[in-house]
Amino acid sequence: MDLSKSYDFFKPExxxxxxxxxxxxxxxSTVAENLxxxxxxxxxxxxxxxxxxxxxxxxxxTQEDVGRLKVEAVADNLRKINPDITLKLVPEGWNSNRLAxxxxxxxxxxxxxxxxxxxxxxNNYIRAMFDFRTRLTDAQHYAANWSDKASIENFYxxxxxxxxxxxxxxxxxxxxxxxxxxxxxxxxxAYGVANFVNFVxxxxxxxxxxxxxxxxxxxxx
Length: 221
Description:
single chain, alpha/beta, Rossmann fold, 8-stranded mixed β-sheet, 6 helices, 8 strands, globular
């Protein structure tokens, strides 16, 4: 893969650990695509779901992917970007699988994300975790340096709400379909991947990034 456009900014060989992307829907498929274009070649993709027609509007899929497992569709798209990419697919989704390196939480439901953090609080093989939460126009990105216990605890405490509470705050259509648009997803993922790249390059993680894609606001802490 020709990385001449980005190589002087980010050299992928600086990344000496594997990337885990848990959930390959709107956020996960976009994270994977962004990382592949940066030259990241060692990823594990987790998702048990299949591509539905409604997913085309805000996820990195095409009509040809409808009916396919999301992990397989994402994998094929990444291989088109970089034929030398190394991928491990987990089509049953994450279920206490061993984690190491960098972990992107892109799955639906706060309970699973909270469980992943609970089971890995003392996992010294993890370097950082990245979480994304999206609504219609606004989104949040959380991150934690796994060598910093206070950062882990703050990351975990940010998940202190139920799936039902989250649903009450999520815009839906008249037919009860969750509303989600591509610009919001693209923007929060761009910031999350930038946070990851800066960290790999030796920078300090932003613990929280808040964006509103259509009111053109961004705050980072």
